[in-house]
Write a structure and sequence with these properties.
3-stranded mixed beta sheet, Clc chloride channel, homodimer, 28 helices, mainly alpha, CBS-domain, 8% strand
């Protein structure tokens, strides 16, 4: 098991920097023992140079920075909206083409017989699309698989996943999601929007692209982890906002997942990015739909208007809602359980790209087949009213003027199916249709999540929930005589959707707000909240949330919100890594090179001491590497007086892909030189005494976004170093506090 | 000026504890030199005893605590909702009675002549109500004056204002607000709800009431500042939620004003309290309105449904909205400017309670007179349609079947007037009516805010804004030929209301969400946000926000979100108070008593050192006082071996009103005894080196909610102490960084 958890696809290949620091080598097949990720570095260039720059800055300079931040956030929002718009239009056009083709084919063969040809056509079209989507993901950028939400959660938490915010990832993600949705998989295009927004944010805010090898020489100040992370929060929020038309939900998502220290200006900028994103999407879609300027239809997925009159709920319905929440929690846990084992199976046996592509194609073909069979054998015919909203009504074996009801759920993009389930009038579906649909779609969606395609789990979850929710509504209406009470099954579809989604992803605050915003109805706030809470409580009893499971499979040093409840008896002394490698303030180059090359000193930060072991600063691996690269040695400085002094710019240019120590050549002579670290170290690192309790250390890490905390004794002598991984190790298991075995701790 | 700012009504009388620590003696007339507030104490009982208790606690105990927290939040929400319901019904009944009486009188005298008698009646009724409201505030609980939002902001920021969360304050606040609204003042009942929720939260969470001398022996664990403050956040959120039917807005309000460290569980509990509060209010109001179970009408103020079709906005309207935002910002700044000088005038000349009551009565009479005159001379008659929504239509001199349009704005509770301005069909008001109304109401509201009555400024601001906003809409419609474009002036009323409110209070994120939730329309998110941003930027250019002005007048050590931008060159060394009084680990009782009695050692926390000056802990004034009170002396412990050991309970029972040092009698013999502080001090206080920059120190304070930070040198020797006040001193003025003169720093 410990062996298994070391391998997981989304964090498995390549490395971001060569730095060997705090690596968690998650191996994937052939590529062995290469460091794979590093924690974000909140203070990475808070060295003397940086402090001096800040001290020199005038009030106007700070104001300019602040304005730049706003401009960047506006840009992030705008671009995220544009991408969402592009995805939406592409999916709609391609899916339209596909469904039209298949529909014509089905109509042709319904009378003549030989519908198996239609099935083949359908399956082939799906497989082809999915193949394309899977190839680019599996062969070019495996990190773009899935929704990207676990990766973004990790990034915002402070764990850097290699290549997660690269331009190439974005391109693969966007193209991939279009093809997987068009390919008819049980996936949504919403999750990937969050990842896309995050990548855009990381790119725009740095003012350069390493992939394109362009440096626009702007926003150089923001080339550090703290700032970048703030912008990525904004990007993720803009993504949520574009996906669901939920700007407030987006802000809360970012805060729930990422924020540690609540900063009002930052939050407001995030909100701005979200607003602009929804607005942009809205505006361009309104032009696309030939209603330019009509801005009242936000989001990629729109749940449609829930009119208050028809959808009122009553006090006595609340227990019902809560019961549905419990069902959702249970089903969600089951979903996660299945997906967990499936993922482990995949890690073991389906780790070669071509196998991954084949699996994806198989799923696509099976999905088409199942859908076809369900539609074929369905006898649920409904009259095709004058105001029908179906885009592609399939008549099949129904009488003229009627259509096959099962086809509205399967023969459609999932977004449209959700809306139909919410809003189609009473009687559109019969109970059997919904039951069968729930059953099949549940397993299809579960199988699909984790494939090497770019795709989200939001919409499938909503769809499953809406189906069984509507089923509940219908059953309730049929069991009670006073039918008027439960007139609208759409209401139950909404609650079911919330319950199922909550049961799978276990988001709470932000999901409530997202649902409220997507329905455009504040009234449902309380029931949705209660449902999501119930779903979370019930679900957590059985199994973790889907994203958390996948994060756990990555054995990432992910810090939760609070220290485990029973960890008060642990102190920094027990938690810290010790002994810790310290450097002298003026240190021999050879020692530094050896320290950095030594794979057992797996830290990214080194306390700097003056004898005897008294702490005077902290220096980072990345800083040392830049220093070595520029050969900032005391002896050389003396001999070449005219040499350009190392500037902040040199650190910024190297950010974020610092070269590995192996690539830096240091001659034998140079090894004897000395390096003066005083100017480059962080002179005032945070410290704690040895007796500080774990919750307190934890709080420091979370609130300040630390990654290293030096532990000192009463005489200010370094006795240890606490890193994120030291903290992430502890969690509450069934038998009280347990130590997690993080890979290579 | 410095002299003036020392006196301000809402923080002027009495004292919470006798502690002389960090006091800011804001004097009011006769009561001299009594300490008045102290900062909240985030680590107040994080001493060894406390740590030991936490270490002993099992996982189940932690879970029980967590459940208690949820129960308390539910209770807070429920009670807040009940109080809101009570206020609403009381106001509606009493105001109904009043308006009916006056209307009958006016109808009687309109034909017969002698309307001056009606005027007298109106003015007398108003003055009488307001007199009652003002008397209880001015004589019994001056802290209950105003909306209470500045006080709650301070409380959440970590500054304790005496008596602000007492039961007596709550009672006065609730009764006071009923009478001031019924008294026809230009006030709202929404602001006070926030304060009420906060008081409830502080009371419920402590499981006892000092006013009622009842201790329910529950929730004893929560008797410390950190926990109390968290619950007060929830209470404030519940208040916002009940006031505006905006649970998400409530959460964001709490976060914007109070949160430092974003804690997911806490946020969720806050959200829960908010939801329950809206729901409770909703539920009981639905019973009151004879529609039991209809839960779709949340909040004390409900802006009514904004139907998407009629209210759509277009891209080209956005610049107009922004322009309105700028107007709102300007008008808001003007409002604040006037109110600032008025407040200073009041502090100087109207500080005696009877004068305050007389002023309030005067304002009430003037308000009635102005309203009457405006209605009397108005010629704006509108037909009384079959579906009119006016509760008390005044015919006056209009033709039969018509009513006086001016009366719908003045002769009504402000909440109803706002709704009329938003929703009455085009042509209900003519431009002159609205212009005159804006003008008079602006000055009336400005005069009213700051009176010794319990009242909020939200609704008057909205009303002023809605009036001029609707005026803008009407003017736009009249200037353009294509009238259809600007059909609905209600849309402009909404934007105007947002602009005006934003211009006055300068809230941003939370206000956007509150407005969105209160209108039940997500579509207006972006314009409202842009408007509020513009209003804030324009307003800030001229003058601070109303609440901030009042906080500044109180010269409170209020910490803003971030350190001033240009303060990077300041280090802990420059900021800290030095020399600092340290105590030895085993200290003579006499020394401790002298230290605490010495008014120049105005700190609430004392570093504990071992020779030579090496830091080994931090102990608080309140802890020392409890120790002295229980005579925990080394010698006594030796002689009386059976003596009960001091327990955590003793600290909790004394919380939060620790006796002043003067009240503790220590005999001359006892002065020679020794006290061992080891067991009671916080053994691992946060420390920083001397060279830490101010922004970094600031961040520690904000993120961890600190109040003392010990500054140490390289050898861990105490060199100084940074307190909140040391940080609050610095702000960015017109000439760069300035030091603020906080009273008696």
């Amino acid at each position: 098991m410990a062996n298994i958890t070391k391998k997981v696809s989304w964090s498995s290949r390549g490395d971001e920097s060569g730095a060997a620091g705090e690596e968690t080598p998650l191996l994937n097949g052939s590529e062995q023992s290469r460091p794979l990720r590093q924690s974000l570095d909140y203070d990475n260039i808070e060295n003397q140079l940086f402090l001096e720059e800040e001290r020199r800055m005038s009030f106007m300079a700070f104001r300019c920075l602040e304005i730049s931040r706003w401009v960047i956030c506006g840009l992030i929002g705008f671009l995220t909206g544009l991408i969402a718009c592009f995805i939406d239009i592409a999916v709609e056009q391609l899916a339209g083409l596909k469904y039209k083709l298949i529909k014509e084919n089905i109509v042709k063969f319904t009378e003549a017989g030989g519908l198996s040809i239609s099935l083949l056509l359908w399956a082939a079209l799906n497989s082809f699309c999915v193949m394309f989507g899977a190839i680019i993901v599996a062969f070019f950028e495996p990190i773009a698989a899935g929704s990207g939400i676990p990766q973004i959660k990790c990034f915002l938490n402070g764990v850097k996943i290699p290549r997660v915010v690269r331009l190439k990832t974005l391109v693969v993600k966007v193209v991939g999601v279009i093809f997987s949705v068009v390919g008819g998989l049980a996936v949504g295009k919403e999750g990937p929007m969050i990842h896309s927004g995050a990548v855009l944010a990381a790119g725009v805010s740095q003012g350069r692209s390493t992939s394109l090898k362009r440096d626009f020489k702007i926003f150089e100040y923001f080339r550090r982890d703290t700032e970048k992370r703030d912008f990525v929060s904004a990007g993720a929020a803009a993504g949520v906002s574009a996906a669901f038309g939920a700007p407030v939900g987006g802000v809360l998502f970012s805060l729930e997942e990422g924020a540690s220290f609540w900063n009002q200006m930052l939050t407001w900028r995030i909100f701005f990015a979200s607003m602009i994103s929804t607005f942009t999407l809205n505006f361009f879609l309104s032009i696309y739909h030939n209603k330019p300027g009509d801005l009242s239809n936000p989001g990629l997925i729109n749940f449609g208007r829930f009119e208050s009159e028809a959808m009122e709920y009553n006090l006595y319905e609340i227990p019902l809602f809560i019961a549905m929440g419990a069902i959702g929690g249970g089903l969600g846990a089951f979903f996660n359980f299945l997906n967990y084992w499936l993922t482990i199976f995949r890690i073991r046996y389906v780790h070669r790209p071509c196998l991954q592509v084949m699996e994806a194609m198989l799923v696509a073909a099976v999905t088409a087949t199942v859908a076809f069979v369900m539609i074929y054998f369905s006898t649920d015919c409904q009259p095709l009213g004058p105001d029908h909203t179906e885009e592609y009504p399939l008549q099949l074996f129904c009488a003229d003027g009627e259509y096959n009801s099962m086809a509205t759920t399967f023969f459609n993009t999932p977004e449209r199916s959700v809306r139909s389930l919410f809003h189609n009038p009473t009687g559109t579906y019969n109970a059997l249709t919904l039951g069968l649909f729930t059953l099949t779609y549940f397993f299809l969606a579960c199988w699909t999540y984790g494939l090497a395609v770019s795709a989200g789990v939001f919409i499938p979850s909503l769809l499953i929930g809406a189906a069984w929710g509507r089923l509940c509504g219908i059953l309730l209406a049929s069991t009670t005589s006073t039918a008027s009470l439960w007139t609208d099954p759409g209401k139950y579809a909404l609650i079911g959707a919330a319950a199922q989604l909550g049961g799978i992803v276990r988001m709470t605050l932000s999901l409530t707000v997202i649902m409220v915003e997507a329905t455009g109805n504040v009234t449902y706030g309380l029931p949705i909240m209660l449902v999501l809470m119930t779903a979370k409580i019930v679900g957590d009893y059985f199994q973790e949330g889907l994203y958390d499971l996948h994060i756990k499979l990555g054995s990432v040093p992910f810090l939760h919100w609070e220290a485990p409840a029973t960890s008060h008896w642990l102190t920094a002394r027990e938690v810290m890594s010790s002994p810790v490698t310290c450097l002298n303030r003026i240190e021999k180059v050879g020692t530094i090179v050896d320290t950095l090359s030594n794979t057992s000193t797996n830290h990214n930060g080194f306390p700097v001491v003056v004898q005897p072991a008294k702490l005077c600063g902290l220096i980072l691996r990345s800083q040392l590497i830049v220093l070595l690269k520029h050969k900032v040695f005391v002896e050389l400085a003396r001999s070449r007086l005219t040499q350009r002094k190392l500037q902040l710019k040199d650190f910024r240019d190297a950010y974020p892909r610092f070269p590995p120590i192996q690539s830096i050549h240091v001659s034998q002579d140079e090894r004897e030189c000395m390096m003066d670290l005083t100017e480059f170290m962080n002179p005032t690192p945070y410290t704690v005494p040895q007796d500080t309790s774990l919750p307190r250390v934890f709080k420091l890490f979370r609130a300040l976004g630390l990654r290293h905390l030096v532990v000192v004794d009463d005489d200010n002598r370094v006795v240890g170093l606490v890193t994120r991984k030291d903290l992430a190790r502890y969690h509450v298991g069934k038998h009280g506090l347990e130590e997690l075995h993080l890979a290579q701790t």
